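A brief tutorial aside. Many learners find it easier to grasp structure tokens once they have seen a single protein encoded end to end. The record that follows does exactly this for Nucleotidyl transferase AbiEii toxin, Type IV TA system. Read the sequence first, then the structure, and try to relate runs of similar tokens to stretches of the chain.
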Amino acid sequence: MLQLQTVDPGTLDLLKKISSQPTFLKHRLVGGTSLALQFGHRLSIDLDFFSSEQIDYEEILLNVKSFGKVEVISRSKFINSFFINDVKVDFVSLPYLWIDDPIIYDSIRLASIKDIAAMKLAAITNRGSKKDFIDIALLIGQLGLDQMLRFYNQKYPDGMDMMVLRSLVYFEDAEVQADPVMLVPYDWGNIKKLILDETKRYLKQ
């Protein structure tokens, strides 16, 4: 069952519309919103869709215009970002294979926890957002860091473990960011300690 309390009704309605559109049938919802819908740990406001197949920008734009008010944020060969009815939506097409089948509720396709874990570790090497660290702590609790890194290497054969491990203990940027709205008991200090302890344990193996 989806944890629908983690997104507002407008975002959920848009998610359903995008997911049921034939153009986006190869896309899966990833990132924090996908994780929140599966575990209910925090509110999330953005929609991030990934596909391993390329879709033309003009086709994406034509389809999203049918959902309501659209503002183009940025466009490129691989990433196209929009505000759709004031919800930030990314459509990303990259040639990385999925580790596991999607989790499907009605028409909504969610990336598996294995894929989300791999993608969160990849994301942390580019940015150190507080939301990402919170999500990674949840994933460590579900999978353990060892498994997460295995999934990361499976999804990204060209990835670099040491860059991931260094990024996992770099909290400076996250320290100045506001806390997301949490739906479960939360302590930022405990989040950092869990990630630090797991990283140290992994490195000692």
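Self-check: The chain has two domains: 4-110, 113-204. If you spotted this yourself, you are ready for the next section.
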